[in-house]
Design goal:
The complex is a heterodimer of chains A (113) and B (115). Chain A has 113 residues and is mainly β. Chain A is 0% helix and 50% strand. In chain A, a hairpin with a 6-residue loop joins β7 and β8. Classes of the chains: A mainly beta (113), B mainly beta (115).
């Protein structure tokens, strides 16, 4: 009974490098959401995707951030030219066709040095 | 857009007592209100949710109430146990299909249950 999977769990990048975060939804789920959590804060919505489609990216910074959910394979959140302010925990959640419950993965903790 | 306020930010209770966490929301179109529990370094875990056609929902020691007129909802935990200690987040979502069903979260309540 695999839940939402994310990897890597921890990622260290130097300023200017690229970060790739992967998310595999629960079996039977075709909707993926990405959220960012800064220390001591709640989660902030970034992007919502279905297979091969970005539905809503209103929470994602306009530059350096992109997301995809290909027909085959995991959803990927990509951050180019990382800066220290990108250091955070990035969680993905998956659901069946909305408006069903969203279940979260274990997160990827990104540290930019 | 939606804005969710959560209070209190920290809450300490004696084991066996009850804990209440309150949230208010701003968007009258929101109609789905989940609660998540997050232990340190772990994933947010869905513990209970309520939809706008229901005023109250209960699951063992946990209950949630919703007042759509006042735009607030609350989490009630009875007979608290040390393992209830965690950060609790409320959230709101527009499930009508007009939006993307994204969750807007409160800033969290750190609950400490003292043995």
């Amino acid at each position: 009974n695999a839940g939402v999977m994310q990897n890597p769990r921890h990622l260290v990048r130097r300023r200017g490098q690229e970060a790739r975060l992967r998310c595999s939804p629960m079996k039977g789920h075709s909707h993926v959401y990405w959220y960012r959590q800064l220390p001591e804060e709640g989660l902030k919505f970034m992007v919502y995707l279905q297979k091969e489609n970005i539905i809503d990216e209103s929470g994602m910074p306009k530059e350096r951030f992109s997301a995809e959910f290909p027909k085959e394979g995991p959803s990927i959140l990509r951050i180019q030219q990382v800066v220290r302010g990108d250091s955070a925990a990035y969680f993905c959640a998956s659901s069946k066709t909305p408006p069903y419950e969203q279940y979260f993965g274990p997160g990827t903790r990104l540290t930019v040095t | 857009g939606e804005n969710v306020e959560q209070h209190p930010s920290t809450l300490s209770v004696q084991e066996g007592d009850s804990a209440v966490i309150k949230c208010t929301y701003s968007d009258s179109a929101s109609n789905y209100f989940p609660w998540y529990k997050q232990e340190l370094g772990k994933r947010p875990q869905l513990i209970i949710d309520i939809r706008s056609n229901v005023g109250e929902k209960k699951d063992q020691r946990i209950a949630v109430t919703l007042n759509k007129t006042a735009k607030h909802f609350s989490l009630h935990i009875t007979e608290t146990q040390p393992e209830d200690s965690a950060v609790y987040f409320c959230a709101a979502s527009d499930g009508s299909g007009a939006g993307s069903y994204q969750l807007t979260f409160g800033k969290g309540t750190k609950l400490s249950v003292i043995p």
